[in-house]
Amino acid sequence: MYGRKACQLVKELTNSESGQLTTFNNDLFAQVIEECEAHFRDLQALFMKMQEEGTSNQTTKNPDHFGAFMHHLSLVRNKRCIMAYVYNRAEVVQNLGWAVELLLPEEIEEKLSNSEKEYFKNHLATLKSYMTDMDIDLAVDMVPPKDPYIKVRVLENMGNVALSDQEANLAMHAILFLRRTDAEQYISQGKMEELTV
Amino acid sequence: MESGSDKGTGGFSAMDDYETLISTTDADLLKRSWRNEKAAPEILQFESSLVERSRAQIQLMEETVEEFMNSGEDPLTVSLYQMDIDRTVFLLRSYLRTRLQKIEKFMFHIQKTADLWSRLSRQEQKFAKRSIEDMEKHLDQSVLSKLPDWYKSHLKQSGTSEEDDMVTEPKLDAFVICRSRKFVGGLPVDDRQVNNMSFYKKGWGDYIIYSKVKMKKKLDKFCGEENPLDMYAGDIYALRYKSIKPLIESGQLDLV
Q1: What is the pLDDT of residues B53-69, one digit of tens each?
Q2: Which residue of A has its CA nearest to B51?
Q3: Is the N or the C terminus of chain A less surrounded, counting Cβ atoms within 10 Å?
Q4: Is A98 in the same domain as A165?
């Protein structure tokens, strides 16, 4: 049935949890594109036939005309579906730009198509360039601050690091009391965790 | 851009009651712009002069804190100042971030609507342009280049579409919660004839959640014809964004 495969793609999208990505379905995607091409071939063939027979496009009771119209509609529907698939995934990728620094974690990267990887890089660069222009780092301070200092546990050896107000030895397992703004970048990189209470 | 931000602040400086006079510090203005931006479905005018002032003040405060630290001021005082800075910086960052996220979401719509485009700051326009290029390239590579010519546009479904029918647009008739800053009389809730049923359904739930809501009018009357809504200062209502848009722009209503 026309349009079923494209519909499956969209379903895949809606079934996955929002904000999460599943592996890009290259297979199904290619099949939908193929279907689109087939529609277009049929569409052209019908147009040719109509031209040869000299029947006008305007006659509404021409079966070939309706046939062509069906192919056109199916094609448009398929396009909408795959665009929705790609665009919604791109939105998730956009959001990743806010959450991660420069490099994607491997488990996410392997789910992306090549074009998506490229898009992520480009978009991140765009984001960074805005921050440079404005001279402000927007990737920190994602939640409203309560205290200027927070308690963190270091998860990775980083040696002596100069922070904004002190030099600290960030050894693994150390529990420190740091300025939130200093700690936040390490937390988002997974090198520290915040201790509550 | 300048004239736009003046419009935002000028609207309420005209009403010079005490309440508004004491709430006009830049921090408050920033908080309000941030809230409005967060709650509004579409992008609002960039508050360029406010952002500039806030940044200057943040810098000044940071210098003050540094001075305090060097001169051995009471650590508690320093920490309080620091906390104040942190909060303001958060507001500023979140404000800018919210705007960028809206641009990411509605980039094509903003690009083709001159009015919306002019609401962006220079840097945001640059950001939007680059975002659009990135997205176009990505869509083209993944999908559009593989489709027949007639279907290649990322704005239209096919060559037969007369309008751009594939552009994500903000839902302007979404409900927002708003509080009036002063009396606003005769507010025409213009889409009630068409949508009063959905207002009943959606609006009623909102009323229950916000128990503070004072209902000046019975809902029946509200939904009936020829009954414009009167809002008194401090009233909270759930209304369609579309119908109160000008009042938000002029600063008479705040979104919460």
Answers
A1: 999 999 999 899 888 88
A2: A134
A3: C
A4: no
